[in-house]
Protein backbone atom coordinates (compact mmCIF):
# COMPACT_ATOMS: atom_id res chain seq x y z
CA UNK A 1 0.00 0.00 0.00
CA UNK A 2 1.38 3.34 -1.06
CA UNK A 3 1.02 6.09 1.49
CA UNK A 4 1.17 9.63 0.16
CA UNK A 5 2.52 12.45 2.13
CA UNK A 6 -0.13 15.17 2.78
CA UNK A 7 2.16 18.13 3.41
CA UNK A 8 3.24 18.86 -0.12
CA UNK A 9 4.61 22.40 -0.65
CA UNK A 10 2.97 24.43 -3.42
CA UNK A 11 5.69 26.20 -5.42
CA UNK A 12 3.41 28.38 -7.56
CA UNK A 13 3.25 32.14 -7.01
CA UNK A 14 0.04 34.15 -7.31
CA UNK A 15 0.44 37.57 -8.95
CA UNK A 16 -3.14 38.66 -8.28
CA UNK A 17 -2.33 40.55 -5.08
CA UNK A 18 0.60 42.32 -6.74
CA UNK A 19 -1.53 43.37 -9.71
CA UNK A 20 -4.21 44.65 -7.31
CA UNK A 21 -1.62 46.84 -5.58
CA UNK A 22 -0.31 48.21 -8.87
CA UNK A 23 -3.86 48.95 -10.03
CA UNK A 24 -4.66 50.81 -6.79
CA UNK A 25 -1.46 52.85 -7.06
CA UNK A 26 -2.32 53.73 -10.64
CA UNK A 27 -5.78 54.95 -9.60
CA UNK A 28 -4.27 56.96 -6.73
CA UNK A 29 -1.80 58.78 -8.99
CA UNK A 30 -4.45 59.45 -11.64
CA UNK A 31 -6.80 60.99 -9.08
CA UNK A 32 -4.13 63.12 -7.39
CA UNK A 33 -2.70 64.35 -10.68
CA UNK A 34 -6.10 65.71 -11.73
CA UNK A 35 -6.32 67.69 -8.48
CA UNK A 36 -3.23 69.72 -9.37
CA UNK A 37 -4.26 72.74 -11.38
CA UNK A 38 -1.24 74.34 -13.01
CA UNK A 39 -1.46 77.75 -14.55
CA UNK A 40 -2.33 76.92 -18.16
CA UNK A 41 -1.70 80.40 -19.52
CA UNK A 42 1.72 81.20 -20.93
CA UNK A 43 2.63 84.46 -19.21
CA UNK A 44 5.99 86.17 -19.07
CA UNK A 45 6.08 86.82 -15.33
CA UNK A 46 8.37 89.45 -13.82
CA UNK A 47 11.61 88.08 -12.37
CA UNK A 48 12.38 88.05 -8.66
CA UNK A 49 14.67 86.20 -6.27
CA UNK A 50 12.42 86.43 -3.20
CA UNK A 51 9.90 83.71 -2.45
CA UNK A 52 6.68 83.85 -0.41
CA UNK A 53 5.72 80.83 1.69
CA UNK A 54 1.95 81.42 1.44
CA UNK A 55 -0.25 78.81 -0.23
CA UNK A 56 -2.79 80.53 -2.48
CA UNK A 57 -6.29 79.09 -2.68
CA UNK A 58 -7.01 80.43 -6.16
CA UNK A 59 -5.22 82.39 -8.86
CA UNK A 60 -6.06 85.32 -11.10
CA UNK A 61 -4.27 85.82 -14.42
CA UNK A 62 -4.27 88.89 -16.63
CA UNK A 63 -3.23 88.48 -20.25
CA UNK A 64 -2.88 90.94 -23.13
CA UNK A 65 -4.17 89.60 -26.44
CA UNK A 66 -4.08 92.06 -29.33
CA UNK A 67 -4.37 95.08 -27.05
CA UNK A 68 -7.32 93.72 -25.04
CA UNK A 69 -6.95 92.58 -21.43
CA UNK A 70 -8.40 89.22 -20.47
CA UNK A 71 -8.91 88.06 -16.88
CA UNK A 72 -8.84 84.42 -15.83
CA UNK A 73 -9.62 82.77 -12.52
CA UNK A 74 -7.90 79.38 -12.50
CA UNK A 75 -7.68 79.37 -16.35
CA UNK A 76 -11.43 80.13 -16.71
CA UNK A 77 -12.12 83.43 -18.53
CA UNK A 78 -14.02 85.94 -16.40
CA UNK A 79 -15.20 89.45 -17.20
CA UNK A 80 -13.63 92.11 -14.98
CA UNK A 81 -17.05 93.05 -13.59
CA UNK A 82 -17.56 89.48 -12.34
CA UNK A 83 -14.16 88.98 -10.69
CA UNK A 84 -15.22 90.18 -7.25
CA UNK A 85 -18.38 88.05 -7.07
CA UNK A 86 -16.57 84.97 -8.41
CA UNK A 87 -13.81 85.36 -5.82
CA UNK A 88 -16.35 85.82 -3.04
CA UNK A 89 -18.03 82.54 -4.03
CA UNK A 90 -14.72 80.65 -4.25
CA UNK A 91 -13.31 81.98 -0.97
CA UNK A 92 -16.54 82.01 1.05
CA UNK A 93 -15.68 79.12 3.40
CA UNK A 94 -11.90 79.56 3.47
CA UNK A 95 -10.17 80.58 6.66
CA UNK A 96 -7.12 82.26 5.11
CA UNK A 97 -8.18 83.91 1.86
CA UNK A 98 -5.05 84.06 -0.31
CA UNK A 99 -4.94 84.77 -4.05
CA UNK A 100 -2.02 84.45 -6.44
CA UNK A 101 -1.88 87.13 -9.13
CA UNK A 102 -0.21 86.06 -12.40
CA UNK A 103 0.37 89.05 -14.64
CA UNK A 104 2.11 89.17 -18.02
CA UNK A 105 5.02 91.61 -18.12
CA UNK A 106 3.35 93.69 -20.84
CA UNK A 107 0.26 94.50 -18.73
CA UNK A 108 0.12 98.12 -17.49
CA UNK A 109 0.16 98.67 -13.76
CA UNK A 110 -3.38 100.15 -13.86
CA UNK A 111 -4.86 96.72 -14.60
CA UNK A 112 -2.87 95.14 -11.78
CA UNK A 113 -3.98 97.83 -9.33
CA UNK A 114 -7.65 97.18 -10.21
CA UNK A 115 -7.30 93.57 -9.08
CA UNK A 116 -5.27 94.61 -6.05
CA UNK A 117 -8.08 96.98 -5.04
CA UNK A 118 -10.61 94.14 -5.24
CA UNK A 119 -8.39 92.07 -2.94
CA UNK A 120 -7.92 95.00 -0.51
CA UNK A 121 -11.65 95.78 -0.36
CA UNK A 122 -12.45 92.15 0.53
CA UNK A 123 -9.49 91.63 2.93
CA UNK A 124 -7.84 89.00 0.72
CA UNK A 125 -4.13 88.35 0.88
CA UNK A 126 -2.54 88.81 -2.54
CA UNK A 127 0.65 87.17 -3.77
CA UNK A 128 2.23 88.49 -6.95
CA UNK A 129 3.59 85.51 -8.90
CA UNK A 130 7.10 85.90 -10.30
CA UNK A 131 9.57 83.69 -12.08
CA UNK A 132 12.99 83.03 -10.52
CA UNK A 133 15.96 85.05 -11.75
Automatic annotation (TrEMBL):
Superkingdom to which the source organism belongs: Bacteria
Recorded topology in the membrane: Single-pass membrane protein; Single-pass type II membrane protein
Location in or out of the cell: Cell membrane
InterPro entries in the record: ExbD (IPR003400)
GO biological process, one term: protein transport
Keyword list, A-Z: Cell membrane, Membrane, Protein transport, Transmembrane, Transmembrane helix, Transport
GO CC terms in record: plasma membrane
Protein name (record): Biopolymer transport protein ExbD
Species assigned in the record: Acetobacteroides hydrogenigenes
Amino acid sequence: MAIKRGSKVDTSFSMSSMSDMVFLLLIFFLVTSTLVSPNALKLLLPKSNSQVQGKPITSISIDDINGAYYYYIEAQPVAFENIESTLQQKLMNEEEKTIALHVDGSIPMDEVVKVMNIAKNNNYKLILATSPE
